[in-house]
Amino acid sequence: MFANTVRRHVTISRFFNAVRDERLPSVLVGGPFRRLRTQRPVFQRYFTSTMEGSQGVTIRRGRMEDVPGVWQLAEEAMWNTHQDMIETHFKMCENGWTIAEKDGNVVGCYLTHEFNDDLTTGGHFVVSSKMRGFGVGGQLLRNIAEEYGERNIHFSSISYMIDTYERYNGAPLSRGDTGGKYFGVFRDIPLPPDASRTYHLSDLQQVELSALIDYDTSYHVVARPEMLKLWLDQTTAESLVLLEKGKIAGYGSIRPAMNGFYLGPLYAENTIGTMVLFRGLINLIPRDSNVDFFLPHANEAGQLILKANENTVGLYATFHRCARKSYIPVPKWNNVFALLSNECGLC
After folding, report:
1. Which residues of 56-71 are buried (b: 16+ CB within 10 A; e: fewer)?
2. pLDDT tens digits, residue range 140-179?
3. Which of 283, 267, 251 is nearest to 338 (CA)?
4. Are 244 and 228 in contact (CB under 8 A)?
5. CB 343 within 8 A of CB 123
6. GO molecular function terms here (predicted)?
7. Can you tell me the distance from the alpha carbon of 80 to that of 216, in angstroms, rounded to the nearest whole number?
8. Could you give phi then psi for residue 286, rounded to 5 degrees?
9. DSSP code at position 196
10. Which domains does the chain have, with CATH numbers?
């Protein structure tokens, strides 16, 4: 199923081509997201290359040729990703990578993404084990603070790193929801026998473009058509849309990782729909494959699935959603089973 991807790649490309100049309807009409949902150009940032003392580490803007180096960092840190995913993140966040380089090698990195001048997200902060303790991570964080000034950046933090981030932020972080990076083999999906009668699983090309973008925006608040195109268009990815009475009730995507597969996003309107969609995506990959994903702890289907597979599933780490100044909760966070990416985006 994952071998025959060329034809599907072309189909999805055509599916998304119309989105570049299309003015998308707003899904949310008020509340704390009123400014976030307005599409405005991002502000111009000041960026400088600096040297990290006697260690001779250069802090600079990332570029596409850094993909293998960033991939090596992720591999060393045992992050279960794939070089294709790293490349996709570079394409999604063109000027968002900050790279620490020493002797021509990537020894640290940080990723930011600007959706508009009110919403910036960050992640993928990692330093080579050989360079830890030499101030490389601190210089990356100081560079981000200098570049973005007083902007409010949303990100996820592993629990033990929060104190470090607060120290460099110069103030307590605004904390929000929690989740976990889970991995394992999922053999048991506790669905009622007649659950599939209510829902239909469809390929992307069978749904209307504007409906899919609107559905994603109902979760993410800010429309992200170009990001979705790049993420779902990755040639190794497989995606499904959950339909209920002909209307979108969820969608999800799964793709190869270093060890098994990475699942994300997976959004659905209720517990049963989530499990139907999850089972559909799991059925696309070889039986008993390892699957990694970021699961918000508030998701009911997630807790049921973890319990049903407790002997074959583990937790890498707990993470907290944070913001430098003010954390704004995602309105449908409880319906998020798997984040699209923990590196860029609200969910």
Report:
1. ebbbbebeeebbebbb
2. 999 998 998 888 999 999 989 999 999 988 899 999 999 9
3. 267
4. no
5. yes
6. acyltransferase activity, transferring groups other than amino-acyl groups
7. 25
8. -60, 145
9. G
10. 6-28+180-338 (3.40.630.90), 50-177 (3.40.630.30)
Contact 326, 159 (CB under 8 A): no
Both tokens assigned to 273:
């729909």
Pairing of strands 238-244, 105-116: unpaired
Structure tokens given for 246: 């002909």
User: CB atoms < 10 A from the CB of 54, how many?
Assistant: 7
Handedness of CA 9, 21, 26, 320 (dihedral sign): positive
Q: Which two tokens stand for residue 262?
A: 């990475």
In whole angstroms, give the CA distance from residue 80 to residue 71.
10
Query: From the CA atom positions of the chain, what is the Rg in Å?
Result: 20
Q: Under a CB-based contact definition with an 8 Å cutoff, are residues 222 and 37 in contact?
A: yes
Task: Give whole-number Cα distances, 10 to 3, 61, 209, 264, in Å.
Answer: 15, 32, 15, 21
Q: Which residue has the tokens 């279960």?
A: 80
* Tokens describing residue 24: 């998308």
The model's pTM is 0.86
Q: Which residue has the tokens 């071998």?
A: 3
Query: Is 222 in contact with 229 (CB distance < 8 Å)?
Result: no
Report the half-sphere exposure of 343 (CA within 13 A, side-chain side): 23
